[in-house]
Amino acid sequence: MYRINVGVIGLGRISCEGHIPAINNCFDKYVLKAVCNKNDIEKGKMVAKKYNCNYYTDYLQMLDNEALELIIIATYANTHYDIIRECLRRKLHILVEKPLVTSIKSMSELCQYAEDNKILIYTSFQRRFNVYFNKISNIIKKKYIGDIIYCNLNNIHSKSEEYYIKKGKGKYDGGGVLINQAIHSIDMLLVLFENIEVNSAYLKCMTHDINCEDWAKVDMNSKETNISFWATTSAYREQGYELAIWGTNGHIKFSNNHFEYEYKKNNIIYSEEKEYFFSNIDLLTSEYGDIYEEITNDGFISEKLCKYETGLESIKIIEKVYNMVIKNE
């Protein structure tokens, strides 16, 4: 089987505990040729030794010296645009850890270049490969719970002050709760519902010394329903996730790992309650499986991968929120 040569830029937690092990799981499809990290040289050498690949502190040298085909970008969000541009110049396929970029303003030219040269750009939204998410999508699309009346989505994320010192304290550094943590949930809403528009938004910085939001309340509507979306980051350890969707014929609920649904069809009630436990490595392994098929098989189109077009949609939603809040100040 043909194996794709991969290079990884950025060796933070999501790379070392997610992307690289997932690539290693797909050893029949990928070869990890090189990794790059400029801030922690000892860690970089250790990772390179563990996975028997080359180590660089300069990603441009890695791009020029190695015969690579796919680049994983897992650096701070405000560096993504420049790295994407350099990868496209070398006609390399790209998987970017969310968000794709922090602003869509300058992406149109790069995206057109990628399109013209058949270069694939993905944003890593691995939750699309989760079993419960696929069940929710299927239940909605087949209208098992009828017409959607209302959707509510709550997120609680835990981030320390040290996290923001490294990540950046401005909203376009990629440090805000919307673009950095809640973007996974925004992507989920974009997959589940059509034509999402922002009605109102409230942003605050409540517990951190940063120049962007660590608390957000956003009300949206879509072609199908009204959506209440709330996301917050705190310095406390507690984390949580709750999704509830009500329809004219039933409901869906997902809270942390607990999934349930109930609907009525032909006077028979169908229901399920189940605990779903998943790891980033498992989800990313599935994501890399589909990427491999798209790169090597011209006729294969994944329904779950997030291409650059849909990756930019979540950024557009966030920019609408920021612009709405600025106008209301």
Report on the structure:
The radius of gyration is 20 Å and the shape is globular. The chain has helices spanning 13-25, 41-50, 59-65, 80-89, 108-116, 131-141, 161-167, 177-180, 183-192, 280-296, 308-328, and strands spanning 4-9, 30-36, 54-56, 70-73, 93-97, 121-124, 148-158, 197-204, 215-221, 226-234, 240-247, 250-255, 258-265, 268-275, 306-307. 36% of the residues lie in helices and 29% in strands. Helix 1 (13-25) crosses helix 10 and helix 9 packs across helix 11 (308-328). An 8-stranded mixed sheet has the order 8-9-10-7-11-12-13-14, with helices on one face. Strands 3-2-1-4-5-6-15 form a 7-stranded mixed sheet, sandwiched between helices. The chain folds into 2 domains: 4-127 and 283-307, NAD(P)-binding Rossmann-like Domain (Rossmann fold, 3-Layer(aba) Sandwich), CATH 3.40.50.720; 131-277, Dihydrodipicolinate Reductase, domain 2 (2-Layer Sandwich), CATH 3.30.360. With 329 residues, it is α/β, with parallel strands linked by helices. The longest helix is centred in the C-terminal third of the chain and has 21 residues, at 308-328.
Provide a quick synopsis of the model.
The protein is 36% helix and 29% strand. It is α/β, with parallel strands linked by helices.
